[in-house]
Amino acid sequence: MRLARLATAATMSALSDTAGRAMLASPATTDPLFRRIEEVHQEQNKPYGRILDSGTGGHSLKWLATLPKGAVASVTAVTADASAGEGKGAADLVSVLDAARGDRLVEGRWCVAGGNPKVSGNSFDTVLCDYLVGSMDGFTPFEQDRVFGELKSYCAPGALVHVVGLSPVYALMGGDAYAKLSEGEKLVVDTARLRDACILLAAHRPYREYPPAWIIRSLRNHGFEVLDPWKSYGVVWKHATVKRQLDVARRKLPYFTDEGVAKAMSAQIDEMDARARDTLGTTGVTFGSDYVISARLEGGGE
User: Mind listing the pLDDT tens digit for each residue in 82-114?
Assistant: First the structure.
């Protein structure tokens, strides 16, 4: 491990000599969440070095492929399942990885004995957790409190960890708060509840997002220094945005054990889609927020 860290330090030194602030951002980045991560690296004047995309998907791989080559030493992308969902999205885009510099896509599950991704011995300078914590309930439930401790063991000294997540506004909302929402906001909450109901009736596990306060507390508990300020960005829900969530619900219908319930839920999905088209259209409503929380590990992961 010590030798690996020395090698990483040498690589980072070389990158720092060649990569100025202008080399740490991609002109192609339009996503405000990824743009914020670039801003943090600019503020810290820190190249990306060896990147661990700890819960990869097509969206994050596309962004990583646009980063300035001189600021990236390699990318290791990890998915729990390369055959479905975001994992398949990453597998379909594996060609954007640069095998010549050591990029690779790895399957594995964090916090599972014997199931961890085969990335042992690596020491990463940048760790991306792009909706990783929220997705764990679908793959590794009840282990979310351990994940930052596990990722810490893969961090080089001074590593930056970026956690992207969705504030679970609807999950924290009681009846009184719901009654005060606008029609558009109620539709967003109803869509999330309908989606999760279909996932459960299919005997699958829905994702479980965590609020920023939980993420910050967990990072600090595992020895990370949370960088101020962390930032949040309002989510604009248009008809197309809601439809993507309803499509998730619709794909669960064949797994229902009761055909009558599946038929009733299908009608509910159609009705919700029509409401979204009429209420939200292409303008939409801003409700809830995504966030980016960045943290630094001063010492190593040992």
Answer: 666 676 666 667 778 889 999 999 888 889 888
Q: Three-class SS string for the chain?
A: CHHHHHHHHHHHHHHHHHCCHHHHCCCCCCCHHHHHHHHHHHHHCCCCEEEEECCCCHHHHHHHHHCCHHHEEEEEEEECCCCCHHHHHHHHCHHHCCHHHCCEEEECCCCCCCCCCCCCCCCEEEEEEECHHHHHHHHCCCCHHHHHHHHHCCEEEEEEEEEEEECCCHHHCCHHHHHCCCHHHHHHHHHHHHHHHHHHHCCCCCCCCCCHHHHHHHHHHCCCEECCCCEEEEEEECHHHHHHHHHHHHHHHHHCCCHHHHHHHHHHHHHHHHHHHHHCCCCCEEEEEEEEEEEEECCCCC
> What pTM was estimated for this model as a whole?
0.86
